[in-house]
């Protein structure tokens, strides 16, 4: 069981909150202004750097998420039980897993990244803890660093393949979105994006949403000058009956020179919940399918230019059943939850739990 929070991080959070109060949520159709985050987990393992990420709801309602460090440590997948409010380590060798999602058979799918990670999409049997490879190559070349994924109603896996860390040589020319079909074959969906990160599908599977988060480097190095960043945008790609891009993409949000979005999820009305990492405005931005902001849930204080930011979210996921309106958020090296008003959308296997 994971118990004690990291003292230094707790001190930083308290100090930052005292100096820069975290604003209240806005957008009454999505969330009550009095709603507040509940902290559920904070890293206590002796690993350095990185962040928590990739929350995914299991068929039993538990939340699996990743704890991704820098360096040679392989990272962890952690399971949070909403009934007991206890966290436990599912595995201490995740292959540097980032985004997670459960499929229709109850297997846990994981995007394993680079920096000594697996650079593949893997599948876990959560009962036996047996792991197998779903795909690790496109046209014979190793993936860059699978980051986040979503699954359509036909069981096909869409995933983003950027690169943010590691010294492994890149074999693929593009940072692209790929799809793994049910027969195991891999197709490129699009590389009309600079550096894809979070992905999600609309409930009708007619739109693929992609976070373009180009931080300007294949290897984050705090000791070097900050690189020149590129696109920080949210795109909507129209999909045809074959599940492939069928027209020009739409830009729903453009964050300019500020950091953009990491992970995302959708509710049953098709609204997008975006983990916005912007230092002036960190939080969960909620936009409707046309791209208009309809709510904002701050996760930290406004802190433009800070060297040690706090309250920076990475990913989001709704619970199921009695927790269908509960939004889980990975922020810094912690897991939080907050009550919203509209249930999250999940592929059909999760309905009615």
Give me the strand/helix succession.
HEEEEEEEEEEEEEEEEEEEEEEEEEE
Number of helical elements: 1
Query: Whole-Å distance between the termini?
Result: 26 Å
How would you classify the helix and strand content by structural class?
mainly beta
Shape: globular
Number of self-contained structural domains = 1
**CATH class assignment:** Mainly Beta
Oligomer kind: single chain
Give the biggest sheet.
Answer: 4 strands, antiparallel
CATH topology: Neuraminidase
The H-level CATH homologous superfamily, spelled out, is TolB, C-terminal domain
Structural features, described:
It contains 1 helix and 26 strands. With 353 residues, it is mostly beta strands. The strands form 7 sheets. Strands 1-26-25-24 form a 4-stranded antiparallel beta sheet, with no helix packed on it. Strands 2-3-4-5 form a 4-stranded antiparallel beta sheet, with no helix packed on it.
Would you spell out the secondary-structure blueprint of this structure?
Elements: H1 7-19, E1 38-42, E2 51-57, E3 63-68, E4 76-81, E5 86-91, E6 97-102, E7 108-112, E8 120-125, E9 130-135, E10 137-138, E11 141-142, E12 148-151, E13 157-161, E14 176-180, E15 186-190, E16 196-201, E17 207-213, E18 232-238, E19 250-254, E20 261-266, E21 272-276, E22 283-287, E23 293-298, E24 313-318, E25 326-331, E26 334-339
Antiparallel strand pairs: 1-26, 2-3, 3-4, 4-5, 6-7, 7-8, 8-9, 10-11, 12-13, 13-14, 14-15, 16-17, 17-18, 18-19, 20-21, 21-22, 22-23, 24-25, 25-26
Short descriptors:
353 residues, Neuraminidase, four-stranded antiparallel β-sheet, 4% helix, mainly beta
